[in-house]
Amino acid sequence: MANPLPQSRVRQIVRRFGLIPLRTDSVASYYRKNAVVRVQTENGAYAMKPFFRSNLLRTSTIDQIKAAADYIQLLMNHDFDSMPKWLASHTGKLWTLHQGRPFYVCPWINGRRMESQEDFEKLGRALASLHEASRLPSPVKGPFYSHIRLWQNQDRLFRRQTAKASQMNKRFRRWYKRYGASCNRISDRSWAELKSPEIAGLLEKEMTCPALIHSDITPQNVIIADDGQLYMIDWDRVKPGSIYVDVANALMNTTHFNPVFIHSLLKGYEELRPFDPAERQLISSLYRLPREAWLAARFPNRSRSRSMLDIMEETWPLRLKAMEILDEWA
Predict the structure, then answer these.
(1) What total of structural domains would you count in the chain?
(2) Aminoglycoside phosphotransferase domain: which residues (predicted)?
(3) What pLDDT, on a 0 to 100 scale, did the predictor assign at position 3?
């Protein structure tokens, strides 16, 4: 939503979910100025969120919200408690359509960001609970491998683009001269490990017994509520996928390369679902991939790409140390 919805439209939408709003206000996210509307009622606060289509999938917005709502219903049926429950609309669906855009509503979670060893253990347990509670009854085709296939394509594009680094801006050329070869060596090692029979077998096995993954675990999408309960929010990208990708993403996006947080997240996860040696190696291999560099190379003149490169440069020693920690754990 580029502009905030008028309050009259907000009221019209939330009334379909049985809510009578007293006050509403738009709240920004990291990427969008008006990402969600906070709706205050006599019975508490709720989040009214527009559903945004994923460009990585070829299906329509309606098909994607239908699939997401089915997955959310499955999690609610399994009493998964680390997710705000979506409200049913007057039609019985977990979403409603307004002027061509789907919206859904869930309780507003007041709380704070993760900041302690205990918080990261909670995140690990929540992820393990998600992956164990959402095993699907049939094999998955197509979107299951989207993350790994996407990363392979991004790596190939990165190497093609950087082969012409002289044509890029000075900022990127300087960065690539210092870190490009290391990124490629790290990637080569990971891709070689992912081709090993043990790991290839794990990925093949997952397709016969898939689980749901959140797909977007970031610090902004994890809240420690006032009562201490951990909630993962923003479930627009929930889908069948690799639990190993979900764990590797969570480690990369949330722990800030802090060894204590890395071990805490893994400890919490393995309290509910221990990993065998091959699974540990798979997670370590996926964690190592320099995905920010690949994204930045696609649009080197964008400010966000420059920020990515700056962050990678500032954290490079910490990243290498974190890779060593994951290697030792594996």
Answers:
(1) 2
(2) 34-279
(3) 61
Nearest Cα to Cα of residue 47 among 94, 93, 108:
108
Quote the pTM value.
0.93
Tokens in use for 311? 């962050």
What are the distances in angstroms from CA 325 to CA 68, 119, 151, 264, 284? 35, 20, 22, 12, 9
Give how far Cα 127 sits from Cα of 106, 198, 205, Å: 20, 23, 19
**Which whole number is the average pLDDT over 169-179?**
88
Ramachandran sector of residue 100 (left: φ over 0; alpha: ψ -120 to 50; beta: rest): left
Q: What is the pLDDT of residues 38-49, one digit of tens each?
A: 999 999 999 999
From the list 79, 203, 187, 206, the residue with the least C-alpha distance to 135 is 206
Residues linked to residue 38 through DSSP beta bridges, in sequence order? 25, 47
Cβ count within 10 A of residue 70: 11
The neighbouring-strand residues paired with 40 are 23, 45
| CATH number assigned to the domain comprising residue 201 | 3.90.1200.10
pLDDT at site 122: 98
Domain end (from 78, 108, 138): 108
Q: pLDDT tens digits for 64-101?
A: 999 999 999 999 999 999 999 999 999 999 999 999 99
Which range marks the domain in which residue 41 is found? Answer: 7-108
CATH number at residue 11: 3.30.200.20
Tokens of 319: 């990243």
Domain end position, chosen among 67, 85, 108: 108
d(CA 15, CA 13) in angstroms, rounded, equals 6
Q: Is 67 exposed, middle or buried (0-12, 13-18, 19+ CB in 10 A)?
A: middle
Residue 26 and residue 143 in one domain: no
At residue 143, the pLDDT reads 46
